[in-house]
Amino acid sequence: MPIYDPYLIQYTLKDLQSQIVLSNAIAKLNLNPTSLNRIGSFGNIRKHLRLTLIRNTKLITITFFSTAPNEAAQVANAIAEAYYDYRIKARREIIISGLEVLEHQFQEEEKQISIQQTNTEQKLEFHKLLGAKIEAEKLELQTPHALVKIVDHAEPPQFPVSPNRTLGTVLFVAGLLSLLGGILFLKCSRQPVI
Is 91's pLDDT higher than 70? Predict the structure, then answer.
């Protein structure tokens, strides 16, 4: 549903009488010098121009008063065409500027989508790696023998095995004697010679 603009008719009436519309209308007429002198300036055109609203509509009647009926019709039609061209051009400019804004916004959105796609792809890769790790852990749970393998089973010895106590005692005594000898040597070397 179109938005109602209470000032639209006022703007339209003002635009129909504007210099830009009237000068474009005169240019469309291709008037000969005599007709141009008779129609005259913008003020004269405005003086002979009547714009009437058609009740309960958005339509406007354009009437131009002149002693030459054909000329009056030509001027009124030229004003209508000039206004039509003016509105089309104004609307086109609005659309073009709006398009520029929309295209800029579209490009910014594309950049954001591209960044998000890259992030999503990275998250998907990480997700796949995580899934593969989970599957590997589950597989390892099902096959614990893959981590440790028994190569040879223990066999009972053919002869009894026990620590060699005699050798241990001999080594202890030898170490103790060496220690005592070293301590005596240090004491002797510290005494002053007279």
Answer: yes
Residue 17 near residue 51, CB atoms below 8 Å: yes
Q: How many CB atoms lie within 10 A of CB 64?
A: 19
Residue type, 94: I
Asked if residue 140 lies in contact with residue 147, where contact means CB atoms within 8 angstroms, the answer is yes
Residue 193 per-residue DSSP state: P
pTM, rounded to two decimals: 0.54
Residue-wise pLDDT for 104-121, tens only, equals 999 999 999 999 999 999
> C-alpha angle 79/80/82, rounded to 5°?
60
Under DSSP, is residue 49 helix (H, G, I), strand (E, B) or coil? strand
Structure tokens at 34: 């005599």
Distance CA 64, CA 79 (A): 9
Partners of residue 60 on adjacent β-strands: 53
Q: What is the largest CA-CA distance in the chain?
A: 159
The predicted pLDDT at position 188 comes to: 78
